[in-house]
Amino acid sequence: MSQIALTGIKPTGTPHLGNYLGAVLPGLELARRDDTQAFYFIADYHALTGTHDRAAMLHDTYEVAAFWLAFGLDPEQTVFYRQSDVPEIFELSWILACFSPKGFMNKAHAYKAAVDKNLAAGEPDDAGVSMGLYTYPVLMAADILGVDASLVPVGRDQIQHVEIARDIAQRINHLYGDGTLRLPQAHVRDQTAIVPGLDGRKMSKSYGNGIPCFLAPKKLRKTVMRIKSDSTPPEEPKDPDSSLIFGIHRALLDPEREAELAAEYRAGISWGGAKQLLYEELERHLAEPRERYEALMADPAHLDELLLAGAERARAVTRPVLQRVREALGVAR
Ligand code: ADP
Ligand code: TRP
């Protein structure tokens, strides 16, 4: 077991089909590899930079946990925990902050996005920017470096944050010796796998254009029926590549079945019929996980127990890493 993979998932709202196909499926695949130990955690203290609502924080944390478990995350195999249950991360975060050039933070993308939004609205640069948001990449570096992660599976937008973690680790290693921190590498998933949303833009929580995975069947069907289509008459041939319904559907199919479906479009299928096929495909994928999800959400005490047990396993790794760093710095003998 040479590879340690780590990724954080922010509890910031109901996960959708894009999150399942783009993050959960590849994450589970990686976690099942014999040469990899996966650490997947719920980044609740990262979410705290934007969520200041107790009920939402609690609910969204359980929701994300149940989402991963319902799709098959095995908590025996994967170390699965709440970030806030691992105090070493926050001590390490302070240490890393002392080696992080302030200029890095000015350029980090979460902060820059907030500044750009302020400027566009005619507000001062830093309006509404907390120190938590500003130093977001330092905490993320502590998540990563705290378990000696070598591989960090992320979406493209997070590459810069992983690079910052690597850079901070290099600075510390340069001063205190190469073995002080393990250098991580971002692992970016294939971008062809981006799932479009109901309106054709990337499916995203922030656009409200998602297909939530665990809607009741009737609501799921209604949501699918909302996907944009044009006014081509039912019997006329359809170009699969320009159809949004096909764009979403293909993400669920193997290449052979995808080719068959494309042929059905070209032969002429009504948009209503195409949507019905997509709905049925979704039900095939989601019906069983939905049952597991509902059972998990009905028992938050069980989720707490599971996450706490995961945190204990994570701490068995973060404690010695922190001790190693403290000794290297001369703050412990
Ligand atoms: P959102 O855009 O809905 O807020 P996040 O940015 O929180 O989603 O992303 C969580 C994970 O899900 C990331 O790993 C990201 O790459 C993946 N993901 C999000 N949206 C999609 C999508 N439409 N297609 C594929 N993967 C996605
Ligand atoms: N910043 C990541 C996001 O917004 C979540 C995250 C927090 C993370 N800590 C991490 C991802 C550590 C990878 C590794 O999606």
Instruction: Kindly state the percentage of residues in helix.
Output: 40-55%
Strand content: 5-15%
* Biggest sheet, spatial arrangement of strands: 1-2-3
Q: How does the overall form come out from the CA principal axes?
A: globular
Q: Structural class, please? A: mainly alpha
Report the major sheet. 3 strands, parallel
Query: Which spans of ≥5 residues are poorly predicted at pLDDT below 50?
Result: none
Extended strand count: 5
| Bound small-molecule species | adenosine-5'-diphosphate, tryptophan
Task: Give the topology string: H per helix, E per strand.
Answer: EHEHHEHHHHHEHEHHHHH
User: Count of helical segments?
Assistant: 14
Radius of gyration: 22 Å
Overview of the molecule:
With 333 residues, this protein is mainly alpha-helical. 54% of the residues lie in helices and 8% in strands. It is built from 14 helices and 5 strands. It has helices at 17-31, 44-47, 54-70, 88-97, 102-107, 109-120, 131-134, 136-145, 159-176, 217-225, 244-249, 255-267, 271-297, 300-329; strands spanning 3-9, 36-42, 79-82, 151-154, 185-188. α9 (159-176) links the parallel β4 and β5. α4 (88-97) packs across α8 (136-145), α4 packs across α14 (300-329) and α8 crosses α9. The two termini are 30 Å apart. The model has no long low-confidence stretch (mean pLDDT 95). Bound molecules: adenosine-5'-diphosphate and tryptophan. Adenosine-5'-diphosphate binds next to α1.
Summarize the structure.
This protein is mainly alpha-helical. It is 54% helix and 8% strand.
